[in-house]
Each structure stands twice: as structure tokens, then as C-alpha cells.
């Protein structure tokens, strides 16, 4: 086999590259052109577009890009995008994104290189963000698996090209464009703790007149399971006046080490999510194309009856309300449905509209334009705490948080001479939040809304300018120099009828951020690439941070702060990518990131005032503030290769030390571990193929994490806490013919018991049928 440079040059010209022997050309010519053995021993690197906003191999990219292909997704146990990314990417931790994590929500807590909670940017096709304008919550279910061509994960600060939120890195979900007529259908039916029914359909077609179409639909129902979210009470006084001795309770500890008794569970939480999308494509010429589309998503999490475990001396159930109950020799003075922490319904709809164009101006200039709008309407119901509230109804609140995010971006790419390639662009982003908290007569029915008790209107606007120069110092050495200027501003108002300050107008105020980045990539040999980079990034406060409602959770009252300023980060890393025999690759990196003006929760004692929505049990005040400096440093190792003609293996390990290095809150945060960042993560997977059979095994390890800013959740492996765990998943498939495939999925093969606040699903099984026509 041989590769002619003229053919390669034509490919590069079609993607706006100058026609010259670049690093990728050198790799291909050296690896394939002169040595047939190299073709058998070393696999070519994936082509990616996200790291530098141009097409290049992973060896050329200024970061160690991880690529999760459509084939990897289809061969995994994934039923949603979050599932597909778990354990596939080193240093990426996701809580709430996988089947084995939670049935209660489609959003995820994402931590990449220790930057958690909205500090990793997730985009679709390079532009349209999957984060809402309210709290930057991510909906990793809004894209159907059959619509994904691949997912590229770029670790490290990336604000020089992507702007706010890209402190940990960028996750770019690249969708499939139609190339021919195809229809795909699949159904997945699960049982046990992972009981689910999922149906997915997709249709793509490309017509001779240049028109293309992509249609998709999926429906995902999960039954939830009762024994995951529990009802608890704390110890009371000695049982001097107990009238009813009880059994059935379970003595344990809270995540802070205090004694607590599990007296029941909150019942199953069924959920339904569905998505429908359509995208139209049109080729105006061989070098220019456009697309436009719309995606609709809705999700509803419901409720089912709670289960009370308490029994009297005769073995009969305890009815509520009840008084003077004896639990472990302690008196529970009163217990009623009003005092139980029962979940309410959640509902959201999302409409994402987008359009894009890419083409040429003259011979060398390539232009790309994108616009998108993300409308999310979201509400949740919360029960009241008065005696009039029961499981079935009574007073409560309904919180509505409709929000809109809009993005416009133009990009121009062109060569300058023989050694420079420039990417430059303009961007404009707006966000709008109209939050309302209503009193409701029936906390099970949003239609019973009454007066507004709390509201916030917030707006953000960002103007941006970015540029990057890809400079080929030598055929084997490339220097990347880039920077982005962002001008971010916010304004709004807060209303608290009956409060100390009924109305507050927040004047418009703005901040500017310059995010430079420099990276050097050197091809040490035909198979070894060395990389180093340094840069700065920023993250603007979310509208939730600025204008959210006062929220009570247990004994804690949380407040927003409209005077928050953006976080700033600086980072550097070094890494390598090495092509291995048997189509293998090994990647390694060391990284350090420092986040200043870090938005954290300042917790102090709360002594009042107490109202109908702030019960007297509240004793902690948590206020969002620029409280800290956080530092993360760590090592990423990953690799994959063929062990035999029928067996391929992959493995990864990440060590991350993430902690607070400065504390401006005066609340004892110094040297505390950052929340939602495991110190150690690892994964080991195998893929075996024999004739029509395919088997995939993936084991993943997650070390201990903290969820409290003060690291007070010292008790692990308990309800309300976290666990360290090894989990293993298995998928066995048989391809009957080119069209039909059947699969058996086993999640949590060894039935490990672990917690991520909730008790997570045990072993569960699903069957899957899929067809392509």
C-alpha cells in the first residue's frame, strides 16, 4: 500500500489547509508510504476537529483528545449519552449520567481534570451548548445515541477558543450527517433496579439534488426503584414516655458520622424522557453546505407511595400521624407525613433550534457561521412543612425557571504563507432567566398555583473575539498561539414579597476576560508525539448563582449573590501520544490548574428570621461567593491495542489531587478537597469478536469523593454519602445478518453495593434488539 502526497494535499485543501507537508502528512508518509510492516503494526490516529477548530490527527492536536466513536457507543451498555462517556475518557467523572447512577434526573455533575459543576463545556457540533441558561445544568440525554457520529473530549483550559465554562475542557458531541439512505431502529428492555423500556428510531437520507435529511426519535422510560432514597430520623430523648415500641428501623450513620435511623423509603421515582429531532442539509456547491434543524425534548419524573418500615409490638404497621414512638430506646415525639422529606414531581421541556453554513471565499478562505437557541421550561414541586400537608396533597411550592440561551458565531480560517494557518472569529451569547416561586394549594398539582412568593429576572450578554495561529516551525514541530477576549455583563431584579427587601434592581455590570493559550506539538519520531501547553480560562457566574430563589434543604438555607464575579483559571500540561504495535496507542499527560475567585458556598450559622418557607429546623446559611482558590494537579494514562486478532483491550488511570489552596470565606475551607473529584479513577475493558458474536467487558473504579464544601461528609458508604467502588458491565451481542443484532446487557455484574448519595442499582439485566435497513 502507498499514499501519494498529491492525494493527501487534495484532502487538506478541501478542509482549508495549506497544501504542504504538515505533521499529519509526515506521519502518514513515514508510516505507510515506505514500510508495509508499519501498516500492520501501527494504527493511524483518529482525525478530530475540536481541539483547534480544524481537522487534524490526534497526534497533531495540542491536547490528548479522547474519541468515543459511534462503534464504541453501540458496543457499550450505553442507553444515554452520559452512559457512553462513563469510564471511556481518563479524568472524566460523571455523577448522574449513567444507567447505574440515578433515575431521578437527566442532568449530570461532570468533572474533567478536577473542574466540576459547569466548568466543563459541552457542545453539539462545536457550537450549540447543552447547558441551560439557568444553572449550566447539562442534559446529556437530549441527543439520541443513533444520531452520534463520535464524541471528542478535549481536556484542559480551552477558553481561548470556546469562551466561558471551558476550564476543565470541552466535550464536543458530533452528530451524523446523512451520506445515504438508512433507517435504524432499536429497543431495550431492562429489569430489576434498572427496569426500563427504551425505543429509538432514526432515518437519514441524501438526495442527488444536494438535499439531505436526518430524523430521530427516542422514548426512554425508567420505573425507578424504591429502596434507593430513604426516610430517616435523628435520635431523640430517652424513652421515658414512649407509648409504642417499634421495630423495623435500621440504625446507621449520616454522611457526617451522626447517628440516624432509616425508617422507610420514599418510593420509586418513575421517569419518562423523549426526544424528537429533524435536521435538513443542503450542498450549495462541492465546497459549501448548510444545515438547519430543531430538537424537542421533554422529561417528567413522578412519584409513587412511600414505604414506612416501622412495626408495632404485634408486628402491625405504624400509621401516621403517630406520637411517642420508641425507636432504639429513644422517643420520637411526633411523626407525620408533613415531617417526611418526600419528593415532588419534576418536569422540563427543551427546544433547541440551530442553523449553520460553511463554505469558501475564494481559494484559501473558509468561512463558518452558526446560530442556535436553547429554550428550556422547567419546574418542580416541593411539599410544605405544615400539618395540612400530606403525601397526597396540601400546601407547598412550585418553582418555575424558564430560561433561554442564544449563540451566534462566525469563524474565518485561512493560510498565511507556507507556515501559518489562522483561525479567527466573533461570537455573541445571551442568557435570560425568568424564575418564579409560587405557593400552591396542592403540592401534587402545578395547576393549583397561587401567589408569587419569590422571583428573579436575570440576563447575561457576552461579546467575544478570538484568534489562533497554527505555525509550522518545522515539518515535525507546530506551535499554537491563540487568545480570546470576552466582555460579559449581567443585570436583573429580585423580588421577595413580604421580605425585608421586597424588590431589588440589579444594575448592569460587566467584566472583561482575556484567555490566551500557547501549545507546542513535536513529532519526535514516526510514532511518538510530544505536547505541552499553557493557558488561561474564565467562567462567568450562572444566572442561578446570581438570581436563584432561597432554597431550604434539610437544615441548610442556600442563597444566591448577584455581586458574584467570574472565576479565572490558569493551567499547564505536558503529554505524549505513542503509536503502539497491533493498532495500539498510548497517551499520558501531567496537568495542573489553578482556579481563582472560585465560586463556592460560604456556610455560617443561621439564626433567623423564620417564615412559612424557612422552618425553625434550619441552622446553616449557605451563600454563593467568590470564596476560594482551587488547585488541581494530576496524571492521566490511557491506552488500547489488539491482544489478538479477535481481542482488543483498553485501560486508563487518573490520579487527581484537587483542593482549596486559599480561603477567603473564613469558614475553614483551606486545604479541603474539592467536591465531586475522585482522587483515583481507573478503567479496564475488553472487546472480543468471533464470527457473528461480540462481547464487551468494562470495569471501572471510582475513588472516594466529597459532596460538602467543608468535607464534613466523612462517613462513606452510607445513605447520603459516597462510596469508592469497582463496577463491571457486560454486553454480549450476536449479529444475525447485516441488518439485525440482538444483545444481552448486564450492569453491575458482581452486584456491588455502593452510594452516590442514593443507594445505587444492584445487578440488573436488559435485552436489546437493533436493526439497520
Task: List the keywords.
about 775 residues; mainly beta; disordered N terminus
Overview of this structure, please?
The protein has 773 residues and is mostly beta strands. 6% of the residues lie in helices and 55% in strands. It has a 25-stranded mixed sheet that branches. A five-stranded mixed sheet has the order 3-10-11-7-8. Strands 4, 5, 6 and 9 form a four-stranded antiparallel sheet that branches. The longest helix has 11 residues, at 23-33. Residues 1-44 and 97-106 have low confidence and may be disordered.
Strand % is over 45%
Largest beta-sheet details? 25 strands, mixed
- Supply the helix-strand structural class: mainly beta
Whole-Å distance between the termini? Answer: 33 Å
Name the shape in a single word: globular
